[in-house]
């Protein structure tokens, strides 16, 4: 679908991207993860042709592909209504007449703003503006949608709206690039992801592969008991007065805990498998939490 080769970009002396190469397959949601300043927006702007002075190569398998680009900064005319903003963007994409009217109403309904269509954007909440920002990017029915941090600072209802839209795009076979520094969003929405840090892709692949390769599973245990010596090395304090024990084979560790407790008259109150999270992958790759 899209192949990126050795992309580099500097803003004067500031190197924002260093030799980034990625392949993005058709019909998936591809996540770009990384802390602020990692280079996500720069990479996205290059793909969307907003930035044109860069080195490297961007190749689409289909040259005629229509792109819907949702920028990180909201780009709306505040003094116009939602409907007029959609008309404006629609005309930019060459829509007119009945087609433009029809698409405008469809998009208003899709972003949940039909009832507020007449109202000026400056009266909208942050979440409503975000939704309209997405609406403007999809008015021309692109099958490739790039979203740059579309859920920063919005209410849960708008987030749910946006997530439902993305699920619908996916079920229609659209390709999506989704940049975020919220790991749990990427984990929920994306099939594949790339971790970026300091302008480089640190690691990429399917979410499943990334979790398997970098994050160690663990178990949570709470109760009146002690931890056997062979598990104590990887044991740390967990929440609610329990313990977290990382183990490559968590089921065996659970079994070991149960036996040990029975033999030593301990009492287990809670014993759970803790699934590895993308957050752990990032930590294992960079040795730091997301700086934010
Ligand atoms: P992210 O989207 O991951 O936060 P960006 O691509 O916005 O990262 O930024 C990458 C680096 O490039 C940062 O160091 C940032 O300060 C710098 N940068 C981004 N845009 C500009 C610009 N227009 N002028 C100068 N430096 C920029
Ligand atoms: Mg950004």
UniProtKB/TrEMBL annotation:
GO molecular function list: ATP binding; ATP hydrolysis activity
A Pfam family it matches: ABC_tran
Superkingdom as given in the UniProt entry: Bacteria
Chain ranges of the ABC transporter domain: 2-223
Claim: ATP-binding is one of the keywords in the record: yes
InterPro entries: AAA+_ATPase (IPR003593), ABC_transporter-like_ATP-bd (IPR003439), ABC_transporter-like_CS (IPR017871), P-loop_NTPase (IPR027417)
SUPFAM superfamilies noted in UniProt: P-loop containing nucleoside triphosphate hydrolases (SSF52540)
Record SMART domains: AAA
Record bears the keyword Transport: no
Keywords, in A-Z order: ATP-binding, Nucleotide-binding
Name assigned to this protein: ABC transporter ATP-binding protein
Lineage: Bacteria, Bacillati, Bacillota, Bacilli, Bacillales
């Amino acid at each position: 679908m899209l192949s990126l080769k050795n992309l580099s970009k500097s803003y004067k002396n500031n190197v924002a991207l260093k030799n980034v190469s990625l392949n993005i397959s058709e019909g998936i949601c591809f996540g770009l993860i990384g802390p602020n300043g990692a280079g996500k927006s720069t990479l996205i702007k290059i793909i969307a042709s907003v930035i044109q002075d860069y080195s490297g190569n961007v190749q689409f398998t289909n040259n005629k592909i229509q792109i819907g680009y949702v920028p990180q900064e909201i780009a709306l005319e505040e003094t116009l209504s939602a409907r007029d903003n959609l008309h404006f963007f629609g005309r930019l994409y060459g829509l007119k007449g009945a087609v433009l009217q029809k698409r405008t109403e469809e998009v208003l309904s899709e972003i949940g703003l039909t009832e507020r269509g007449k109202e000026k954007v400056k009266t909208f909440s942050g979440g409503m503006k975000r939704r309209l920002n997405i609406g403007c990017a999809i008015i021309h029915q692109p099958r490739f949608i790039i979203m740059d941090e579309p859920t920063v600072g919005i209410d849960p209802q708008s987030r749910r709206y946006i997530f439902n839209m993305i699920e619908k795009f996916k079920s229609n076979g659209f390709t999506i690039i989704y940049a975020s520094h919220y790991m749990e969003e990427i984990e929920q929405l994306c099939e594949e992801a790339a971790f970026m840090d300091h302008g480089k892709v640190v690691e990429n692949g399917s979410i499943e592969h990334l979790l398997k390769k970098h994050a160690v599973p663990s178990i949570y245990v709470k109760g009146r008991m002690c931890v056997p010596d062979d598990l104590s090395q990887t044991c740390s304090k967990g929440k609610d007065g329990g313990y977290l024990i990382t183990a490559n084979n968590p089921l065996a560790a659970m079994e070991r805990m149960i036996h040990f407790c029975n033999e030593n008259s301990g009492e287990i109150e809670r014993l759970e498998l803790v699934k590895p999270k993308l957050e752990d992958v990032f930590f294992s790759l960079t040795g730091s939490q997301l700086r934010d």
